[in-house]
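Data card: per-record layout.
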Amino acid sequence: MNVDIEAVLRRHGYDGTRLIDILWDVQNLYGHIPAEHLPQMAAALNRSPLDIVETASFYHFFHTTPSGLHRIYLSNTVIAKMNGYQAVYDALEQHTGVRFGDAGEAALFGLFETPCIGLSDQEPAMLIDGVVFTRLTPETVADIIAELKAGRTAAQIANPAGLPEDDLAYVDHLVTSNVLTRGPVFFSGQADHTALLKRCLGSSPEETIGTIVESGLRGYGGAGFRTGLKWQLCRAAAGEDKYVICNADEGEPGTFKDRALLTRAPKDVFLGMVIAAYAIGSRHGIIYLRAEYAYLRQYLERQLRELREDGLLGYGIGGQPGFDFDIRIQMGAGAYVCGEESALIESCEGKRGTPRLKPPYPIQQGYLGKPTCVNNVETFAAATRVMEEGVEWFRRMGTAESVGTRLLSVAGDCRSPGVYEVEWGVTLDEVLSMVGALNARAVQISGPSGECLSVQADGRRRIAYEDIGCNGAVTIFDATRDLLDSVRDYTKFFMDESCGICVPCRAGTVDLHDKVELVIAGNAVQQDLDEVARWGALVHANSRCGLGATAANPILTTLEKFPEIYRRRLRTEEHTLLASFDLDAALAGYERARTELQTGGTA
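The structure for this 603-residue chain is written out next.
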């Protein structure tokens, strides 16, 4: 028996639902998850070694083989590639002496690319051993690698003053919050959380839900489901044990608003969870924090401790006997699909983040089969402000169907990337003027899963559920950008992030990405574009979750708004076969295979 592994298992109560935490602790001990320790872990958790490997292999940040003493993850977003990504990539390979994706057992460095790490407003950016570095240049890369070679840790390099990791000053030193407009709903100042909760507890749970219903507050995750109705249904669901989960798995490329909220207004978020717990009758809270935000964990743990000390978490909250509720942080491990609420719940239970079939919905059978209310960071923060300021105050903002305000994560070709609070109903042109995007040609709304808008055609449209729905991400492209480059990256993102559980998404995302590559190579014909439309509809209609349902959006929305970027690359030659079929390449492959067979594989 390995005593270190035993200590990890004991720390987590030999609880198989905490497998993600256990895997993190083991990897932090050894740099990867060694195969020789799997039998001990499996026996203690009543699982098989293959079960554990199956779960670990699902997540980007877990390694089952040695991956270097220092693991470096470079964010490879479209926005990074607009801001010097390739030069940073080359510098990392040059100064580490390692190729991306390679790391031997004795390697000092392991280099990996990773999707968006929530820093699109300060790219290029990377994670080294969980520590974040922003606004990289080849020169800063050279300095960082030299210091690592000299024996300093990533934490020492990033934090030379030794600021406490649970202090706001530490977080601010690593990452700029970039909140460029404040209030009236978010970042409005430090509320009196004790007085607010006392006022909430003076009303019944039903009255609290009624306030949220009357406010018109809708979930900010993208679908816009009415928050009050979700709480109402969860309260009415059968079962004594109920859970409140905050979805802080902000994985949509181009989105970083939740990062700013968790930095500048974490107690507004946590108090929103407490209010939800009172409303639905819950004693258990979880905030699912994406792995890329690990540098926020100690700071957030401190915020939770302070809430407990103030009597706003724990037993007898607010001096009310019987109202017991606490929140724990569950770290993710790198999987975009875990932003989907049922996949997130699976991950919280120590499993692969595979979306569940619905119904039943989480409000009926969620975490551990119990009724579960899942809202995102922005929704809980807004709920706190609704309870603080009242229904009429909130309803004075926005539109009839999109009440209040929302946060936008703005990045790309603009003068001032960052986080902006706007009222629902603002036009696209107004947003572009606000952020200094005077030469914008296209705007990707809601990240890859959203739509690509033409500034010329859509500038007067409104950001609201009744017009342009928006989950918060706004990526701007000027006329110098080749939009097909972003389409290629977005389709590859969906291909890589598919959980693989359903065939339409698993196979369809690959086929859609291949079609984009075909267009870029100049080998596509009109029939290929026609097939994209048919295949995209098939993937949308038959995928299990929102990832597959939106995977074709990068192609379909650019085809609609910017058809010329495809048509000018189409082949026009007549062939007896499909024009996009490269007969010479296929025959060359056949000839290589035939030669290798004849020579025993030595050709």
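Known properties of this structure: Residues 170 and 505 are 41 Å apart (CA to CA). The first helix runs from residue 3 to 11.

See the next section for split statistics.
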